Amino acid sequence: MSKQLLAHINKYIKVSDDEFETMQGFFTLQDYDKKDMIARAGTRCNFNYFVLSGCLHMFFIDDKGTERTVQFAIENWWMTDHLAYFNRSKTGFSIQAVERTQLLYIHHDEQEGLLSQFPGLEKYFRIIYQVAYGSALMKMKYLYDLSKEEIYFHFVDHFPEFAQRVPQYLIASYLGLTPEYVSEIRGRKRS
Amino acid sequence: MSKQLLAHINKYIKVSDDEFETMQGFFTLQDYDKKDMIARAGTRCNFNYFVLSGCLHMFFIDDKGTERTVQFAIENWWMTDHLAYFNRSKTGFSIQAVERTQLLYIHHDEQEGLLSQFPGLEKYFRIIYQVAYGSALMKMKYLYDLSKEEIYFHFVDHFPEFAQRVPQYLIASYLGLTPEYVSEIRGRKRS
Lengths: 191, 191
Fold this sequence. Notes:
The structure is a homodimer.
Chain A: H1 3-10, H2 17-24, E1 28-32, E2 37-39, E3 47-53, E4 56-61, E5 67-73, E6 78-79, H3 82-87, E7 94-97, E8 101-107, H4 108-117, H5 121-145, H6 148-158, H7 160-165, H8 168-175, H9 179-190
Antiparallel strand pairs in A: 1-8, 2-7, 3-6, 3-8, 4-5, 4-7
């Protein structure tokens, strides 16, 4: 199953099977059921997660008690609170399985060890973060620029796989819309 | 002046003066006046900018013709449309000097050359992007979680230097507020 991580790394840099054999020792494989909690707000953010199958979402509870999703991760995505992970501090976000999920996780200290033993991986993680950061800036543009209805259909058109798999109320939360509003505009399109 | 970039790199990795001498050759030094345009929406995003002094903002024009700022950069910050830069595609953002600004810029191809000649710099850029991405996720949390008034005072409390230097209408734009609303809540605090 971890061959999947090797294939993902090899999209950006070259790692041999032998090197990867050693790299694997830094990771732990774990299965989660739908709705299982993987990390909780208020705890120290020690781990980085690579999704092999399934789907995660990262959220916080706002002051009205509503879950607000800020990020999804499906196959071949890394997920954590990257700032808290970098600073080894407590996180304000929780991470939960949206569906049955299998992932590899790595502890902060282990990731430092991995990178110092295999400095070639710095390029891999540089690209992962560069693209994720650029995408976050684009998301801000869409949230500012598009009408609520356009935000929803832009998301559905660009990420059809998500729209199929992820419950509507989570997509609504991620886009800053209410579930009722999403139902309404979906009905409008169908009619 | 580029000693400043060396000092910034040396916060995260070790680069000798001799190595940096060669690295400098990849960059161009440029001065801009307040309000000068540095990059324009609709053009190919070929450059990455490191601010030595001054301040930049990155913005787009929304469908009502309003400038919407998505990012600032002051001393020691990198700025570009990172996704378009990575994909070598056209950008939907413009970059402009908020005040008199001196920066170093590097072409995409040159940055690839720099990284392949000095792979140790991958770690430096990995950390730059990791922290920037983590911060973008935090910004989304604040935008969702806080009231408009809290968003403004959170920003002013956490980035007092910005609040002093950057015109209020740009801060308002960055926080998704109207300039009138920012004037109003500033007046309220003073009274």
